[in-house]
Please model this.
Amino acid sequence: MRPLTTPRTAVKPETRDAISANGSRRRVTTSRKGGRVPAARASHPGRGKGPADGRKGRTAESAVPRRARAAGKAGDAHHAVVRERAQLLSIFDGIDEVVYISDPRTHEILYLNGAARAVFGDAVGKKCYRAFQRRRTPCPFCTNRIIFHKRPGEPHIWEFQNLRNRRWYRCIDKAIPWPDGRLVRYEMALDVTDMKQAEEALRSSEKRYRATIDSLAEAIHMVGPDLRIILANRAFTVWAARMGLRGGLVGRTVRTAFPFLPATVEEEYRNVFRTGRMLRTEERCLIHGRETITETRKIPVLEEGKTVHVITAISNITARRKAEEAIRRSEKKYRSLMEGANDAIFLADENGMLLEVNRRAIELVGRSRRELLGTHITRLHPPEERDRIVAAFREIAERGAGSAGDVTILCGNGKTVPVEISVSAIRHGGATLMHAIMRDVSERKRIEAMRDLLLRDVTHELKTPIAMMKMAHAMANEALAARDLEGVRRAEGIAARNLAFLARDVGNILGMCWLRGGTLILKPAPLSLGGIAGEIAEEMRDRLRLGGVGLEVRIKRGADRITAERRMIRTLLYNLVDNALKFTRRGKVTIGASRTGGWVTLTVRDTGIGIASAAREEVFTPFYKKNPAMQGTGLGLPICREIAKLHGGTVRISSNGRRKGTTVAVRLAVRPAASRRAGKGGVR
Model:
């Protein structure tokens, strides 16, 4: 066991590139702690160590007036803020989607990330409408009037097709502040061309090869206790005319209105009035020398437990029966086509009664074929959607084909499934058949929800540290004006901490994308766990001091050296320590490591609030945060688990209960068995 110490060493200046707010680069000389080396010492050719000045041996440099030194430190603070802005822009440079920033008044491009430069070239300083659209004047569809006037500060999401590369983009526009105080235009553009093409191909395919339903309207009339018709809808009137029934039917008895029906129909009505139970019957009769088959559903209307009226729904199923016969004649061929489809297919007559369904439809709805056949297609949907679906189907029936959009299927187990319905009407054997294709879009909805959640969380988590850095900048300016050097140092500390939070959150988001997207290949190399722990402790020194929390490193002999991907192991340990500090107000955090055989167990133990046993698995769910107000994206621990898996290891959490601390143990192989790669959905 050895305690962590921070040696005081001489710091040599170094020269590096700095990125300005407009994306340009310049050379500056800095110390390793981030401050600029004063120009008199860093670049003046005639200065070095001067002779002793005065009786006390002070150098010429130490005799610089206080005002000049204060101005130098203020300059350091300013350059620190500039560096932080440059680092933020470099973060956007790592995003795979097109991101640019422009001046809304001049339309000058102020910044392009790497993805934007790959598509449009280095267009910084050019007019956005010339660089992106090859126009001579501003775009008529520009959204500046929306984001700067109608809804300032709010994101505006829209789609358009770029005239230069003919690609479709979904754009997220927003007004953001620039370092000089002006509001500028920020846009992230997601390429959705492939999705658009897929949707268009799907619509074309559905119009050519899929059949649709013609109408969902049923012929309905209401009968009173005296068996007289007291109400009839328009569909019933049309049906009666087709059956050759002339004159008004309202006010007439069932017997006189339908003389071709058997005498038992009156007893059927009386039975419904008496029992209050629905009755479904099928009648065959001759009308004008032609056999007509009708299906009748007599539905009781109850008031205080007594049947006061009977609603009768009549369906002419003659065409359906003929269609069923035609289907049976070609059953083998038709069945093979339907059963081989990946989408749910429903075949109905012109009134919307289901005639046939395929295997996928049965799986989707969760009901048997017997339960589905003979059911009206609207019964597949929740009650609140049925009117909208009926209206959509009527409109589609007039056009002959179309889509009912995204609706909900009510499954047999009570659950609902979002589906996309495309419909068409076809003629077959003299009958109009309705063919409906339903596609389960649950996965698409889930991806869209995750995307929206990610965008929301990223926006929120990026805004907070940026706002704090802006506040720190204002504090530094005020302290500088008051010649308060301690205030300037406090402002620098706030900016540095929030920059670290920003880098952590963005790194975790990108890391999860890499781990799940298959873009990382494990390249193990020998490393020192103690060395990594020391780096992290140095980075978190100010945070530990302000929080009153101690950090101790205890690496047992033989457990310090392992072979692994250094960047990943550093990310893993940083996230574990960061998470421990988040839940530890007082006390200490201990980093430990021990070896057993070919395995090293890396532990991070804190004296914080602890964790309930029920939540020890939930914390590994991406974006999970027990307290939504707590800072962070909820990706730290899920990334730790993915990294451990990638190295053939595991992560385990233990706690002694509330306010008794938490221990996270990561088991890693001293030498990985083989090189691994992160693939979609995890490690492979």
